[in-house]
Design a protein that fits this description.
Blueprint: H1 7-14, H2 22-34, E1 47-48, H3 52-64, H4 69-81, H5 99-111, H6 119-130, H7 139-147, H8 179-194, H9 228-243, H10 249-265, H11 277-289, H12 297-308, E2 310-313, E3 316-319, H13 325-339, H14 345-357, H15 391-405, H16 410-422, H17 459-471, H18 479-491, H19 506-519, H20 527-538, H21 567-579, H22 586-598, E4 612-615, E5 619-623, H23 626-641
Antiparallel strand pairs: 1-5, 2-3, 4-5
Helix pairs in contact: 2-23, 3-5, 3-11, 5-6, 8-10, 8-11, 11-12, 13-14, 13-15, 13-23, 14-15, 15-16, 15-17, 17-18, 17-19, 19-21, 21-22, 21-23
């Protein structure tokens, strides 16, 4: 087997010792994934967030006056189980109380019939009041409470629906905010203009959560920061509040009609506008407040989209923020391809054939506002979402197609590359859904207290796009490739890590960039790679694993730090180290041992921790597929690299 190897290569190969249990761990993990494949070839795993969305589902039923007692009871059980030890509800497993999430959870449970003197309700109430009560809630929670009459509308920043009529060059325009803000905000503008009142058949109120009566509060509105720009926007809010009643009636009607048309055009069948819960639920309430009949097709479509997000599992149920079949399927294919077993190929091919059908080739989405001359060619995250394909999914899917059978999928790969190159931002990076969505002054408006109004380029998405272009042969001097590398070099943190926008956090970002730099031919001895490797090595835990808390998204929080290890984050660290040429480092062997030893008999890794993020500091995610996919990927790659004659990964992911 070693014929043709140099003496040094033979020495390296001979010193490699297979990790005990590695073969069995890879086999069991791949078998468990195969068993979950759907009949048409795709995979989809549950996508879980905090208690906010299940709570909003219950509150929506009370808003509409259409309560389903059995479903409500099942969701209420889920919400109760998510209550933290401090009495409130956190944004992620093991986190601290979040006031907005806790207020909605309390409100939902009270609406579901939980008595206020029940021990869990008393603990929640005390915890919420100790942190300032309802007054400390974010803007979206205040809007919900205003719809139920719990708050006056002056507690909500002014966002006139006439925004829909502004020209594209205006300082604020719908096209200047992120896709998720756009799809959530447009129907919300109608609700804020009409100001309907929830039917609330049980007349549920949460006045007991106010430290002071809401009608006595005078300073509801403040900017997200104390900057001069934030203060200026606060003054603008007060001016708009005084002048809004005098806006022309016909202009308001035209703006409402334009908003309704925007939503109706993007209803997206049973997958809903934008494919995300907040946009769908706002569309439902918009249609309702405008008097749409219950059997109106648009109204029914939006209602069906919400139902599709429900997880009905035993005694507890919850509502997902969205569905992730394209992302789940592409990642699973990468993990299974890494195994290198011919018997897996039919399953992988069926999955990739399914993915090929999901490419958006004919529909020009909102992204064209900044890139009107580019042909579509991307993939969306959900089953269907043609207005909003994203660069991350597109790169990951195309990487898988190219790796498995570049000739068979050449047309899809080429169209993806054309779209990816066309969507590069001016600074050399890539955002998730739009190009040059960097109107940072908008983060200072009072409505933007969630800090997620924009979609600027990020290191993790940019790395995926660079890795794709490098893998399919874009030359080092191609402008898209060279500018991406320069962008990533600028984005490296002083400690050597990279920020992870969509995965928690610096471990995820560092893996993503190291994989891309490897595909682009960056030498492991380069300063950027060495610093990243040193950082990853410094974050390994005594048990051999890695872990990072969602708290890392807060200012001045440590990078790559958590009091626990997780399978998915350990896998990212290992994949990053292997991409950097560290396959034989003892830390990698210890990480592999951690994964093998923490796998259960069925080939699974249990993981309650949230290792992904929707919006930093506001909304976190737990992909139920991550702890099944990534550990297998890392184990299989380690096996491949320690049994072949080269330690080079040679892939863009």
């Amino acid at each position: 087997m070693n014929d043709g190897l140099t003496a040094s290569q033979s020495a390296v190969a001979s010193c490699r010792v297979r990790a005990p249990g590695l073969e069995d761990a890879v086999f069991r993990a791949s078998e468990s994934l195969l068993a979950l494949q759907r009949a048409d070839g795709h995979w989809v795993f549950e996508l879980e967030a905090d208690a906010t969305i299940p709570s909003e589902y219950i509150l929506l039923q009370h808003y509409l006056g259409r309560v389903e007692p059995e479903l409500q009871a099942r969701i209420a059980r889920y919400i109760r189980a998510a209550q933290g030890a401090d009495g409130g509800w956190p944004l992620f497993y093991g986190g601290d109380l979040d006031v907005s999430c806790s207020v909605k959870a309390y409100f939902a449970l009270k609406a579901a019939g939980d008595p206020v003197d029940a021990s869990h309700m008393a603990r929640a109430r005390a915890a919420i009041l100790a942190r300032g009560g309802v007054r400390r809630c974010n803007v979206f929670t205040r809007i919900t409470l205003a719809l139920f009459g719990e708050l006056p509308w002056r507690a909500v920043p002014v966002m006139p629906v006439e925004i829909m009529l502004l020209p594209s060059w205006s300082p604020f325009h719908i096209a200047k905010v992120s896709y998720w803000s756009r799809t959530v905000l447009v129907p919300l503008l109608v609700l804020m203009a009409v100001r309907p009142r929830a039917r609330n058949p049980q007349a549920v109120t949460i006045r007991e959560l106010f430290v002071e009566p809401p009608e006595l509060v005078r300073d509801w509105i403040s900017g997200p920061s104390g900057s001069p720009l934030s203060l200026a926007f606060g003054m603008l809010d007060r001016l708009l509040r005084r002048t809004e009643p005098y806006f022309p009636v016909d202009a308001r009607q035209r703006a409402i009609e334009k908003a309704v048309a925007f939503v109706s055009e993007r209803l997206n069948g049973e997958d809903g506008p934008g494919g995300i819960f907040p946009a769908i639920v706002n569309a439902v309430m918009m249609f309702d407040c405008l008097g749409y009949a219950a059997d109106h097709p648009d109204y029914q479509t939006a209602l069906a989209a919400i139902r599709k997000l429900l997880v009905l599992d035993g005694e507890r149920s919850y509502c997902q923020p969205c569905l992730s079949p394209v992302w789940d399927t592409a990642l699973t294919c990468h993990a299974l391809m890494e195994v290198g077993d011919a018997r897996l190929e039919p399953a992988i091919r069926r999955a990739l054939d399914w993915l090929e059908t999901k490419q958006v080739l004919e529909h020009t989405g909102d992204w064209a506002a900044t890139r009107p001359g580019i042909r579509p060619g991307g993939w969306a995250f959900q089953y269907e979402n043609p207005y909003y394909p994203d660069l991350d999914d597109t790169a990951v899917v195309a990487l898988a197609l190219d790796r498995f059978d570049s000739a068979r999928y050449r047309r899809a790969i080429n169209r993806a590359a054309e779209w990816v190159v066309g969507m590069q931002s001016r600074n050399g990076g890539w955002a998730s859904f739009d190009a040059d969505n960097t109107h940072y002054y908008l983060n200072h408006i009072p409505f933007a207290d969630h800090g997620a109004l924009l979609d600027p380029p990020t290191a993790d998405v940019s790395a995926r796009c660079l890795g794709f272009l490098a893998q399919i042969g874009y030359a080092a001097d191609h402008p898209a490739r060279s500018s991406a590398i320069e962008y990533l070099r600028r984005e490296q943190e002083p400690d050597g890590s990279w920020f992870g926008r969509w995965g928690t956090n610096y471990i995820y970002g560092t893996w993503s960039v190291l994989a891309a730099l490897n595909a682009a031919g960056t030498e492991p001895s380069s300063s950027a790679v060495r610093r990243a490797v040193d950082w990853l090595l410094s974050r390994q835990h005594k048990d051999g694993g890695w872990g990072e808390s969602c708290n890392s998204y807060f200012p001045n929080a440590p990078h790559g730090d958590a009091p626990y290890s997780t399978a998915s984050q350990t896998a990212w660290a290992l994949l990053g180290l292997m991409a950097a040429g560290q396959v034989e480092h003892p830390a990698v062997a210890r990480g592999i041992a951690y994964l093998i030893n923490s796998q259960d008999r069925d080939g699974h890794w249990g993981e309650l921790w949230f290792t992904a993020v929707g919006f930093p500091r506001v909304f976190y995610l737990r992909y139920h597929g991550y702890h099944a996919i990534f550990p297998l990927w890392a184990l299989a790659r380690y096996r491949r690299l320690t049994t072949k004659n080269s330690l080079q990964v040679e892939l863009g992911i």
